[in-house]
């Protein structure tokens, strides 16, 4: 009985610190990441979830573009260890947010082929796409918000966003170039594979 009491009293400081770390933790500083590479894929959005497609045709009513960024960690919050528990362990209760170090200043989608009578080859057709994320559609200006990219950061430190075509093209053969410009002047450009939108 005495041994149990001794063990209980010896563990009280540890239990108290764990409770305080999890319940009263302050908002941790963010992890900062920077965009590294960009990849683009044709999407088939005809099913329950949009999937990358390697076929040369898809339904024009369910076409989209997936943009994937590989990222590099730019800054990691300092870890302050206490006697019993580290800040990193406490962050399991209060996970730190992720923020992009370099903000996306502009996103353009350029048609390689004639999109319709008013948008010939080389035209900006960004207005015809909308981002789809967490069961909601977002205007293109909204997808530039770093919070959207931050929440979409997965365990592999990759960022992705789906842009769904909201207006059917006038001609079936399509291909698009995605152009991203960052606030530091850096630009990324990638082109999708050609696809027939039937």
From TrEMBL:
Q: Kindly give the InterPro entries that the UniProt entry links to this protein.
A: DUF5034 (IPR032215)
Domain of life of the native organism: Bacteria
**Keywords assigned by UniProt?**
Signal
Q: Which residues does UniProt assign to the signal peptide?
A: 1-21
Return the protein name: DUF5034 domain-containing protein
- Which source organism does the UniProt entry give? Dyadobacter psychrotolerans
């Amino acid at each position: 009985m005495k041994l149990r009491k001794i063990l209980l009293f010896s563990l009280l400081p540890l239990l108290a610190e764990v409770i305080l770390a999890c319940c009263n933790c302050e908002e941790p500083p963010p992890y900062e990441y920077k965009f590294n590479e960009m990849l683009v894929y044709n999407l088939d959005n005809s099913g329950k979830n949009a999937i990358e497609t390697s076929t040369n045709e898809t339904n024009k009513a369910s076409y989209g573009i997936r943009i994937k960024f590989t990222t590099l960690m730019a800054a990691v919050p300092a870890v302050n260890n206490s006697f019993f528990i580290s800040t990193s362990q406490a962050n399991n209760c209060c996970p730190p947010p992720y923020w992009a170090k370099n903000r996306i200043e502009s996103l353009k989608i350029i048609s390689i082929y004639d999109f319709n009578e008013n948008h010939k080859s080389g035209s900006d057709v960004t207005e015809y796409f909308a981002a789809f994320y967490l069961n909601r559609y977002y205007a293109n200006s909204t997808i530039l918000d770093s919070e959207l990219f931050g929440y979409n950061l997965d365990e592999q430190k990759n960022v992705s966003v789906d842009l769904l075509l909201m207006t059917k093209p006038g001609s079936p053969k399509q291909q698009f170039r995605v152009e991203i410009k960052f606030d530091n002047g850096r630009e990324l450009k990638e082109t999708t594979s050609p696809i027939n939108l039937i």
